[in-house]
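Q: A small favour: would you put together sequence and structure tokens for a protein?
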Amino acid sequence: MKYLVLVPDGAGDEKIASLGDKTPLEVAKIDNINKLAQKGEVGMVKTIPFGIAPGSDAANLSVMGYDPSVYLTGRSPLEAASMGIKMADTDVAFRTNLVTLEGEGDYEDLIILDHSSGDITSEEAKVLIEAVDEKFGTDTIHFYPGVSYRHAMIVNNGSTSYELTPPHDVLTKRVGDHLPKGEGSEFIKNIMKESYEFLSNHPINKDRVKRGLNPANSLWIWGQGKKPSLSSFYNKYKINGSTISAVDLIKGIGICAGLDSIDVVGATGTLHTNFDGKAQAAINEYKAGKDFVYLHLEAPDECSHQGDLEGKIKSLELIDEKVLKPVVAYLDSTLEDYKVLIVPDHRTPLEIRTHSSTPVPFVIFDSKNANTNVDPEKSFCEKAGEKGKYFDNGYELADYFFQKK
């Protein structure tokens, strides 16, 4: 038996007036996904436990079968694992975004325009973060470049007690209302404030402004946590597998769980990612003998953060046509039994441009036990999912999918 878990990040949404009170999943042309739904099972799952912020860290742990209330130690240390950063037990990792701020006057009066600096390239970002490390790094504080706008700060013998806010939660808001709080957090605030003048004057950002692109003119530090310790995915489900994602967080979860992490050239985590390459990478993993692929697509989430309705719908259609279709065609060609789970990690409603804790729809297709009678009422969307099976604990969906007793 082969297994595919396809995660269209942030695909879940709410009814939108301009779509006739439908959601993007309802109006998107996702015929390949819906064909599986019509012959399979649809339902809803709550991936974010009560009392935990609706971050991609908690959500993807849930989808992969890990209870976030047990295993979540913070977002950044999972990303650090993907980046190959070796953390001591006393180290604290912080996600460090390159963001775009705009406005006049004091730093506190600026506005958070863009959490991703216009999806800055990894090559440009690497130069900036290396300059940041030279400027702000110390014997106990170190900065490491990641992918696009996503980077890491490691503090030796650090604390996790600060109150830090994800920048994508406060887009268009005043900076001063969302700066670090808590005892000892002043050093983080100072780095963020001083980084604005330093990065604004960097040649890379001056060139980006000339080209009409958002400059990466400030650091935004958040997502703190200590070294994670996940139980083995193989020991949980007795299958070997791989993760495929452009996002360090997803790679890190997989690495910590003992899964292989596969890099795909041109994978950006945006609408312009290498969809074809991701599909081929999944197929290659099955050909290499893997039983399971966790295939994560970030584009719907990024479009939601940017308030891009057209892009979100387009991303769903590209995932359906360029990713799911060829992978399922390959699995069919092997004549081996297989199962597919399609589920967003969380909702990212366009109206609020950030994550929510509302349950998300899922589709499960089992080639061995596919329904012979096609049910046209079944589809991959919130409305259809509400009529099916419901999981109040997200991690139980993985147990159900992998048939763990």
The mean pLDDT is 96. The chain has two domains: 2-73+230-401, 92-225. The CA atoms of residues 307 and 351 lie 8 Å apart. The longest strand covers residues 92-102.
